[in-house]
Amino acid sequence: MSFLTTRGVPRKDLEELLDSADEFNRVLARPIPKVPALQGKLVANLFFEDSTRTRLSFERAARALSADVMNFSAAGSSAAKGESLKDTALTIRALGADLMVVRHKAAGAPRRIAAWTGRPVVNAGDGAHQHPTQGMLDALTLRQRFGGLDGLRVAIVGDIRHSRVARSNVFAFTALGAGVTLVAPRTLQPVSTGGWPVDATDDLDGVLGEVDVVYLLRIQAERGGLSVFPSLPEYVSRYGMTRDRFDRLPAEAVVLHPGPMNRGVEIDDAVAGHPRALVLDQVANGVAVRMAVLFRLLGGSG
């Protein structure tokens, strides 16, 4: 069994994963934040794209479960010499990996690695396709804040076309009962939202007073996001979460961001540091969610 997408995952399974993450958050709050649940297991982190939060979070999660960790990055590896993805994955399996955490620029790469190796694989982000543990840590953050996602009104704002986070969150949030509106200029909306249980608009100011959650996405320059609107100042004027826009949100509304944040573009510095910006809560919850995923996939006990 692997965890490759939130699309099509039943609500019951998502809630069980969140319940498990709650338990692991209690473990992490102990004086010694560690359990021997995966002692003797080897988790391999295969990162073919740069990462800070996700890579460190998976490493912390594995070690908190007492698993051994092997870290791979494409830079400085034989991948730079032309070694194929398949041969790299088979090499990691031969070194004894029980589970692989994979981030890759190509959509579908984690699924292929799971098929080649026969090992459980966690998708840590594949192209503009999916990032399921991000969707789950965001759902956990909202559940902690609001008690649940049923009836929550969520606006996902920014470069949705190139965002794997948006895709994972749409299916996780709606399966858990939230309503989602995509907010972006037409050029940054998906080519098609067929099969997506969402509304879409290009008018952020028109939805500000009606939402409980604003989920901000950065412009993904590495995937061409900067090339489809006239200028950053124009983007900020229409879609940036300025302090003025933040003040027009309902009193209990919160702001989320998966990071890295571009302060002064999609989020104002004053908003990023506000108590109702839950960015660091997201980071902290990432460890517990990833512990829950690793524990489930590796058959942990205790």
Describe this structure in words.
It is a single chain. The chain is α/β, with parallel strands linked by helices and 302 residues long. Helices cover 37% and strands 15% of the residues. The chain has ten helices and nine strands. Helix 4 links the parallel strand 3 (99-104) and strand 4.
End-to-end C-alpha gap: 20 Å
Residues in helix, %: 25-40%
- Indicate the CATH topology of the largest domain: Rossmann fold
Q: Tally the helices: what do you get?
A: 10
* Widest β-sheet, arrangement of strands: 7-6-5-8-9
> So what's the CATH class of the largest domain?
Alpha Beta
Order of helices and strands: HEHEHEHEHEHEEEHHEHH
What low-confidence regions span 5 or more consecutive residues with pLDDT below 50?
none
Q: What about the largest sheet? A: 5 strands, parallel
What fraction strand?
5-15%
* Shape call: globular
Chain-averaged pLDDT: 93
Named at the architecture level, the CATH assignment of the largest domain is 3-Layer(aba) Sandwich
Number of domains: 2
CATH superfamily of the largest domain: Aspartate/ornithine carbamoyltransferase
Structural class: alpha/beta
User: What Rg, in angstroms, do the CA atoms define?
Assistant: 19 Å
Number of strands: 9
